[in-house]
Prior knowledge:
Elements: H1 11-25, H2 30-37, H3 41-49, H4 58-71, H5 86-99, H6 113-139
Helix pairs in contact: 1-3
Amino acid sequence: MAQQPDGSVDPLVDAGHRLRQAREARGLNLRQLALETRISSPVLEALERGWRDRLPEATYLRTMLPLLEQHLSLPSGSLEAALPSAATAAQKRAKTFVVFRFTPGSIDVFTTWQGTWIYAVLCLGLVYGLNLEQQRLAAAGLLALR
C-alpha cells in the first residue's frame, strides 16, 4: 500500500484495498459492481486504486460510499476514509476559485450563461445600430426600396 511522507498508510488507499477485497470476495469484477450499484467503473477503479484526482466531488462520494458498503456488506463507515478531509476540500475550493476567476477571455460564448448574455447584448446592439443607419438613410432620401 502507498505510504504518506510521515510513514502512515494513505486512508484512501486503505479504503480502496478494503473495497477491492470485499468486491473480489463476492466474485464481482468492476463492471459487474458498476452495473449493480450504478456507479461508473472509472469511479470504482479510482476508489480502489486511491486516485484522488479522478474521484468525483465529496458530495457525490457521500452518497456512493454508503451504497457500496451496503451492497458489499461492509461495516457502516468503513469507506469514509475515501472522503477528502475538510482542509483538503477548502484548499481545493480556494484553488478552484483562483483558477476559474471570471475574465472576458475565459468566457465560452455558446455554453455559459455569461457568454449567452454577451452574445445577446452584441446581437441587440448590432440590430439597433443597423436600424439607426436605415433611419438615417431614409431621412436623407438615400434608401432605395426597389
